[in-house]
Amino acid sequence: MTWSCGEIKNLDALLSNYLGETKTIHDVKIKKLSQPGENLGSIIYGLDITVKHKNDENEELLHVIAKVLPKAEHIREMFEIQTTYTNEMAFYKIIIPTLKELQEEHGIRINLIEDHFAKCYSVRKNLLGNDDKIDDDAVLLLENLISTGFINIDKRKGFDIDTAQMVLRSLVQFHGVSLALKIKKPDLFKRNILPYCNNFFKKGSIFSTAIDLFGITVNKNEETKEILSKIKGWNEVDYSSPKEPFSTLVHDDLWTNNTMQKFENGKPVSNKLVDFQLITHASPAADLFFYIWTSIPLPLIKTHLDHFIKYYHDNLIGTLQLYGIDTAPFSFQAFLDEIENITPFQIIHAAYFTIIAIHGPKGGFNPDRLPTIEELYSAATDEAREKIWYMVKECHRRGWFK
User: Which CATH architecture has domain 153-397?
Assistant: First the structure.
């Protein structure tokens, strides 16, 4: 019997490596997990798969999520599905095993890179028997982290200090092991990492919209309006080319909803990073800046911004030392220079997401069409605007946005 479930065809073939010769699918229950306005780049289903052992008839329940293509053609075009889906599939099937192998070679047995991500059961580009093209039968089957106790925190509230630091430790592992690979095995980095890096956000109309929205928002406050008037070319900024020695593999979309946490007795104990459609080759400071300003509440940023930056850098240095890398070129001042270099682009990136994703309308914007600039600004909450205005003033005060 060949199993198909909703939009997911040939499920048994998709799970053939997991099933092997001794297991078979007995039953499948499916439900849609993604909500309107969320996860625009994918539709996400939850599958509860009952698997029966052929030898003894024992059963086990496999909880997975299936990521499939969005329906709307303009969303597919906007998210460049041929690239983003190919890259995320490669992340799980090529990049993670490559990074894991480097750790094993260095005898690292704690804080393993794979501990920070969901398990991948299978990926498929199509049913044509080739790897040439993503089509309607493309799917990623990943571990359903909810079934093991992980949750998304409230994106409007953001992380408390303990959870924020736990996410930073995962981010350091992601950046640090990739950076170690680049230094230790540059040819392997070029072969297994760089082909799947794509500067998605700087392309097409999305960043143009972000620039316009940033300008409108900043000019609504007299103090930030004056700051912006003195910054020449702020609206012509581009994604900065990665500089050495810091350049590494970055997530490029790291905010609350792209992380999941497990809590015990109210304390965070484990973190997972998810959604790797937009991975790229850039400065790790880009991920850090975007994460802090989108995912940590403003009162905590006001009191702990320096702490978070230093905490990240200290952990990055510790990770690089595990691989025997000379950390002299990665000084704290050099890292602050990295932050200054990425701020002109990332400040617009973070402001855009603060309005449309963090504090946007409940249920999101109409997925059938792209919202206008006026609709985007009108939907912004006072909290979103206050955070953006403070971000502009603070980055200007620190000499990052000038």
Answer: Alpha-Beta Complex (3.90)
